[in-house]
């Protein structure tokens, strides 16, 4: 697909018109359009085949982040999320990043780690050497698990052996099988390979294999993104570009040294990351676990991103994190809306998806830091949150915006005030109430 993700005024269009604009811009077929609209999404029958004790399906708002350029390609990015301001924030930061070419992203090889825990080993050192001596035959046996994956260029790559001398249950040996899963997330392939190797590992080590399971700390499967924002582009209102830029760097520095701040800082990154992971049917829990473990890899929990001032005064940002996502297998292919979201993005390979997701995480991190460093997080957030409060209070149609606007102006975004305004404005002319202060 060749199109521009820059869609001015997209936010102000009615819901149905937004979908029409997307369909035209991305040349979507009727099936994809229907899935994105929620008309042909996951059915209860399909859900019943996916999990146990299914009783129905659960929906989330599905939005589209615009303005993104990733590695020179414009891309429209679906985001499934209930939190206000995330889609808007990411889209706005992507617009600023376009001035310097958008986001430049890359990934490492799609290698997952399957762990084999070996207990009751007579001699940890000797067992480790014995396993490494038979490395080639061990890898050959692991590759028998999925010959199709091997033909596609994936399969077992290496083994690592880690003796753990002191644990609550005594010494143990941990074998890491490094497994290239290509365009799959790879949990099933890695787990199956680890289970296949268990008897072989026991025979070599003289120990007892216990757990055989992949690790979600996918630190061999990383995604990185970076961007530059000219200082002048950051200016707004009474805030100069230099003031905003320096405030963002100062806010990041807080997260870099303090785990209490870093937890919330990284949560902001995951607001963007998780929304795309969910929309594409990938395992957001695995991504979350890997991200936070990676943030603590030095022994101290810290920021996943980094922000600094470049030599020319521009704001420079980067984000690196594990990104074990797939475009084949699992819910990615079973869920109709997940398939539609991948088509909307024009993504066919896992590395492309990972590069887009990490770029969204960086954009959302910038949006949060910009708000925190200037007018505060609540101003923009509460305007959108007020609509949810208004709906919960019973507002419908034009009354939603009228009630939300009044609460924001008053600075009282609360359920009790929303209920009072619904009663008050319902008794009058809602069309004139929309313009009320």
Q: Can you give a write-up of this model?
A:
The protein is α+β, with helices and mostly antiparallel strands. It has three domains: 10-108 and 222-375, 3-hydroxy-3-methylglutaryl-coenzyme A Reductase, Chain A, domain 2, CATH 3.90.770; 111-215, 2-Layer Sandwich (Alpha-Beta Plaits); 379-433, Helicase, Ruva Protein, domain 3 (Orthogonal Bundle), CATH 1.10.8. The protein is 49% helix and 18% strand. The protein has 18 helices and ten strands. The protein has a four-stranded antiparallel beta sheet with strand order 3-8-10-9. A hairpin with a 2-residue loop joins strand 1 (62-70) and strand 2 (73-80). Helix 2 packs across helix 13 (336-345). The model is unreliable at 430-437 (pLDDT under 50).
